[in-house]
Amino acid sequence: MRLGRREFITLAGGVAGGAALGRVSLRGISRLNEALEPPSALYPGEEQWLRSICSLCSGGCGLKVRTVGGRVIKVDGNPIYPVNRDGICPRGQTLTQLIYHPDRILAPAHRSAIDQPWETSSWDQTLESLASTLRRLRGADQQNRVLMVSGRSRGLTSKLCSHFLSSYGSNHFFELPSGMETSQRALEFMAGIPNDGKAYRMAYDLENSRYILNFGCDLLEGWGTPAHTMRLFGQWRDIKRGRRTTLIHFGPRLSVTAARSDEWVPVEVGTLGAMALGIAFVLISEDLYNRSFVESFSFGFEDWTDRSGQAHMGFRRWVREEYRLSRVSEITGISSETIVRIAREFAAQPGSIAIGPQQSPVQPGRLSDAMAIQALNALVGSIGTRGGVSLIPEFGWPLPVADGNETMRTASLDGLVAVLDQSPEVLILDQAAWFIDSLDDAHLDMLNRIPLIVSTSPVEDATSKLATLLLPDCTSLESWTDGQSPSAYPYDLIALTPPVIPPRGDSRPWGETLLALARMTDPALESVYPWKDMESLYRASANELSRRENGYLFGTQVDEQWQRMLERSGWWNPDWTSEDEFWDGLVNKGGWWDPATWVSEPQHSFQTVSGKFEFFSQRLEALLREKGGIQPGLQPSVEWDRQILPHHADILPDNAPEGFEWTLDPYEPLVFFGGASRQIPFLQQITSPYSGPRGWRSWIEMSAEDAHRMGIEEDETVWVESARSRIQRRVRILEGGKPGIVGAPLGGAPTTGRWARVESTLAEILVPISDPYLGVRSHATTRVKIYKA
Amino acid sequence: MKTNMQRRFLFLLGKLLLVAAVLPLYLSGQTTDTRAGLIVFREKGCASCHAVLGEGGVLGPDLTRTASTGNPLELAAAMWGHAPQMWQRMKLEHLELPTFTTEEMENMFAFLAMIRSFDEPGNAVVGQQVFQAKQCATCHSIGGQGGDLGPNLTTVASLRNPVAWVAGMWNHGPGMVRALRERGISFPEFQGTEMVDLQSYIRLQAGAAADEKTYLRPPSTERGESLFRSKQCINCHGIDSGGGTSGPDMSRVVLPRRFGEIATVMWNHEPQMNRLAAAASISYPQLEAQELADILSFLNSLSMRWTGSASAGAKLFESKGCVNCHATTPGQQSPAPNLGKIEQSLTPITVSTIMWNHGPRMLEQMENTSMTWPVLTSRELADMIVYLESLKGRGQRPVRSPSSGGTP
Amino acid sequence: MARWGMVIDLDKCTACQSCVVACQVENNVPSMTPEESLKGRNISWIKVVPFPEGSFPEAKIRFLPLPCMHCDDPPCVTVCPVDATNINEEGIVRQIFARCIGCRYCTTACPYTVRYFNWYEPIWPQPMEQAHNPDVSVRPKGVVEKCTFCHHRLQKARANAIAEDRAVVAPGEYTPACVESCGPKAMYFGDLDDPNSEVSDLSRSPRAFRLLEELGTRPKVIYLAEGERSGTTG
User: Fold this and answer.
1) How far is Cα C189 from Cα C176, in angstroms, rounded to an integer?
2) pLDDT at position A699, please?
3) Same structural domain for residues A767 and A619?
4) What are the angstrom distances between the C-alpha of A660 and each of A127, A362, A664, A707?
5) How many structural domains are present in chain A?
6) Contact, B128 vs B194, CB < 8 A?
């Protein structure tokens, strides 16, 4: 890389360099003689290094915490925590700013209305006011008027939340979607899951992948668990591990992931499925697909005839006829040569994997696209193999009650909005700032009509702003905290750490608040949850886990390799022999995991109707029949197969209204994904690694080409207008971005607290697009026009 | 002049030391040493060239897939033979030559011996062929298909260890033999890794039933030895000429190095063994999977022993040209170190350590004088070690490998 | 005597800016109010700088984590009139706050723009100062500050070494906060004069380059250019 000095200063210096060159002021120099000795010269207190688990996203990375004199000074990655091993994302680093945030909520409080001042009260008083409402609704058999929205999505407290709600009698528990739901549904339709009542989750063995086709996932901006994905990225490019893993990114927006990939393929909006089918076309017509897998273990690849004698089109003929390169090239805007080249590379070696689509809660993507992508994995035989994809049983902290595993959870935002219409009376918002972020003003009005909103936020945020009752939780460093296998992670894992410091002020771990609430609401509930605090609940749960006959307590990477060697030949050398030993080991080492969870043998048996991997999903067919009211046995038109086979369908109408020439692509940046974090100054200062506005404001990203054409300057404020409404945003100019595409992050300035700033939310202008099969939103890409403010 | 007592003590001590170094400690459940061996293997950079169980570098051979057993003597001989080639390659790749302490080498040998006795995951495709060829489906069902005379194989799909699998077969062996005879099906014998392959196939067919995994704990050689007696194996099979003679002496049989393969050999002899045992009115031994693993571990440990002849070693010392550079009489000068002066007790492990740490210099000197590196078979190395050891004793200690005899 | 240096593998950098935050937390760098922040007055001893290359559709963006280069020939040292900045025997370019008169010649002289002036008294809204690292002094208004390679960590490591009767700090014992926090392990730190250290090994890599080498500053932060994409076979 060659750079001249002038060029360098322009890029690196930015405003900061300019500031340094500004007018010299000599005032204040006289005070330079004041003591500059570090305070450690006096004795600041005992230094300790303790373990904890991060709670700033559902990934739950292991932490190594430095405390001095009982104060938290620094947070780093725990080197023996298998998910992140040492590394940590910038969010985790800012836990100190969250713990000692000036806007921490340190005591329970209530107010009569949201425009009235807060009154602090005792825990007993505040809980009783909530418990009495719960009792009253239960007496009137109106339990369903109680709603809970949670952002935890993993761990024992999350399980306790949903279980508490269902034993109370309400069906309305909602949690933060992982964004992987669509991909998982697609794989379930095609590869099937056992009908054993257990929960399954989608997992990738990305550590061993050699060639990755990434259909739109923002891998480096919060996908999966950030610190884990970053570690993987480092491993893919570690020359000491041998061959470098190739990462190809498909997607219209020049995301950080796109910029850091080996190749960015800027497909048109909403054409990921078409792209996948174009690659499938090359694999099939050049005979590059995995014959032994497809011939022996798949269904619906060749033309076939069903029991009633009806002929069906096979995936092979479907792709060869419908997704010729010229057509795919026209849909995606990508040259045939590029598609052919990538397809050949994809088929060239084992360890190839296709992931996607997108996978973010804002835009979970389309089922048909996701099925096209999974079809690619089947074509190269990467289902259940090393470096491939699989559905594995969900594993986590068991709730030691009779029906502890039968907790229902709904992840659909649309479902939740529908419930808001049914005049709910109590809404409990637990780590739910993400939920408020996804609502527009009309939805917020609906929230404002709910008589009792409870917020558990430890710091003033969007939920506390709406609430009339505060039951402040504390941060993960102030309580017993657990972890479990995060989404996409290929191994079973549970983790547990004791508090690093006592809760600040009068805040309380939410799990303990729930146990107390159960006690106060109903003796029947109390008997379901007999534990006095979370520690004893964890103890009971750990006792169940100690009876497992696999896995190991956390250890070094040498231990990991050692344990895998043992496992491979069928040996297991447990490091505990009793419940007590397991508990001690768990707390001491920070967790348990099974480094041999991932299936090492390719999957050949599938829990589908045919017992094979289904290019033509018979379960999806049954579902569509049901939905369309089609009688079993009755044969619908020939168009039928087209709906079931993986296919491409446009998401935006062809003809844009006059002036709406841009497509706005909403995304979640690393610092804001999953809601929260808006109040943290250090995160506001690093909102994006691209140049342009520095924090505390929302922005949009425009290609340099578009900006120059419009005469828009970096950091200028513009109007972004959709068919619904218009909002103001500052502009970041992306050198090399795709013209016509506007990136728009969710999140922005804090809406409450000392640094609050009034900004319209992005949800105001978004026009959600629904998935025709799943009936939930798949995209929020929206046609917009942009003009100077 | 040492007393008889002292001599006997020294002999026993030598024996103890050797046994400690040679018997795989991992087999007694003490995994610390073998785990330390893995650390040595990683930290000395071995892992960057050599794979074990298919994982690791590709410059050198995969150490679990080369022939020979985990016997330290064979390892030492293999290392000796390949050393010049290895050093040359490392020089080419600009790799630093690590040095080892005896303890490190010992741990690494224990580690290598352990992983070399581990079974590799089977090949399901071969397993399917075996399944068909042996007509398993006539009696057994899997995934809802097949006969119902024998147990449903889906129920054993969770077994991860081939030993556990063989134990299951072993225990219903007599019944199976009877049922086979009634149907005129020949008793299924298995070759090599067929049993492991079969297990892989069954696991695949069982689908989700194989998600539950059951393992065996690391086996114990000591427990295995006592089980070998209590289960009356010893009544037919002798060890070092002690015990019965109707079956082969287990200390003289060459067994495969992997546990699953030893178990397969055992299975193949099941009908014969059953007959002979019945004739001698020994009841058919029922074996828990863990018990079988312990017994196999004991049998495996027998092949870790080695023996050599000092007189053959003396001849080799001349014929291989060692004598041209190395003196052996105390006080004698020679171009290369006097081998009579080595104070350390010589074992395959110490020899490997010395060879590894000083070998490159030796190779260099040999190249300067146009001599070729002497290649030694494991047998020859054993003879040589016993010979060199005998030099130290000089009539004060019995000239024989401490392990060449039987149990005391 | 060690010569401390850093290697940053740009191929592995994910631009997450974990290093930026880690540095701020470790070194008691104050966060700015939104108003100051929007004016671009954030202090970050290490920042991630984007370098876009090429235009659509062949665009690439490289991200360069930019700490103080700890030049062997630091231009900032020569211009300081009061010896408030100097280079110590281990190659660390130091800033002595008590001597600094705030003339900012050094910020101008530094070609890498990694020196920052304190325009204001640092502000920590209560109780954020609870998290202050007691090993690092808080800088007053009117002085220049910059990356120290977390020099206080070296002092601690050395104290440990002395306590354990060792002459030198062991490899890996002294690591700056940014390097420690790096998720993809893109940053390396160690003794450039030790021929066996990872950093000196990497600094000899054909991918290694230094920023603005032609200025003769001889930086001790060495970058590794992006690696080659794997071929399609083998």
Assistant:
1) 8
2) 94
3) no
4) 51, 22, 10, 15
5) 3
6) no
H or E element that contains A159: helix A156-168
β-strand A782-788 against A662-667: which pairing, if any? antiparallel
Q: Amino acid letter at A735?
A: E
Do B61 and B96 have their domain in common?
yes
Q: Residue C220: inside a domain, yes or no? A: yes
Nearest to A84 by CA among A246, A237, A184, A207: A207
Assigned domain for A337 exists:
yes
Whats the size of chain A, residue-wise? 789
Q: Which chain A residues are within 8 Å of C32, Cβ to Cβ?
A: 681, 685
Q: Are residues B271 and B295 in the same domain?
A: yes
Q: Please give the residue range of the domain that contains residue B199.
A: 124-218+249-302
Q: Kindly report, residue by residue over B51-94, the tens digit of the pLDDT.
A: 887 777 778 888 887 766 678 888 888 888 888 888 888 888 77
* Parent domain of A138: 106-174+415-473+513-524
Q: Of A686, A691, A702, A742, which to mutate for an interface test with C (greatest number of C Cβ within 10 Å)?
A: A686
**Among A490, A524, A558, where does a domain finish?**
A524
Q: What is the mean pLDDT of residues A571-599?
A: 92
pLDDT of residue A665: 95
pLDDT of residue A67: 96
> Which pairs count as long-range contacts for A239-245, CB under 8 Å and 24+ apart, including other chains?
A239/C227, A240/B48, A242/B57, A242/B58, A243/A210, A243/C230, A243/C234, A244/C227, A244/C228, A244/C229, A244/C230, A245/A209, A245/A210, A245/A211, A245/A212, A245/C230
Calculate the average pLDDT of chain A. Answer: 88
Whole-complex ipTM: 0.95
CA distance B213 to chain A (A): 8
| Domain shared by A194 and A322, yes or no | yes
B205 with B330, same domain?
A: no
Asked if the structure places residue A339 within a domain, the reply is yes
| A386-426: pLDDT as tens digits | 899 999 988 889 999 877 655 556 656 777 888 888 889 99
Determine if the peptide bond prior to A750 is cis (ω within 30°): no
Q: Which residue, among B294, B260, B301, B228, has the nearest Cα to B29 in the 3D structure?
A: B294
Instruction: For residue A402, give both structure tokens.
Output: 């009779």
**How confident is the model at residue B399, as a pLDDT?**
36
The predicted pLDDT at position A635 comes to 60
Say which residue, B327 or A542, is predicted with more confidence: A542
Q: Which residues in chain A have Cβ-Cβ distances shorter than 8 Å to C233?
A: 348-349
For residue A254, which residues of chain C lie inside 8 Å, CB to CB? 59, 61
- Could you tell me the CATH number of the domain that includes residue C194? 3.30.70.20
Is A97 inside any structural domain? Answer: no
Rounded (to 5) percent helix, strand, coil in chain B: 55, 5, 40
The answer, yes or no, to whether residue B189 has pLDDT greater than 80, is yes
Q: Chain B within 8 Å of A577 (Cβ-Cβ)?
A: no
Interface test with B, best of A239, A566, A577, A607 (most B CBs within 10 A): A566
Rounded CA gap, A494 and A154, in Å? 10
Identify the weakest region by mean pLDDT among A135-149, A163-177, A326-340, B61-75.
Answer: B61-75
Q: What share of chain C in percent tops pLDDT 70?
A: 98
Out of A438-447, A584-593, A602-611, give the one with best mean pLDDT. Answer: A584-593
- For CA atoms A62, A68, A73, A79, give the dihedral sign: negative
Give dist(CA A432, CA A455) in Å, integer.
8
Q: Is the pLDDT of residue A14 over 50?
A: no
In chain B, what residues touch A605 (CB-CB under 8 Å)?
143, 204-207
Evaluate whether residue B244 is within a structural domain.
no
Q: What is the CATH number of the domain that holds B192?
A: 1.10.760
Domain that holds residue C116: 4-224
For the segment B112-161, what is each residue's pLDDT rounded down to a tens digit?
888 888 888 888 888 889 998 988 888 888 877 788 888 888 888 888 89
Touching chains, C (3+ CB pairs < 8 A): A
Q: Domains in chain B: how many in total? A: 2
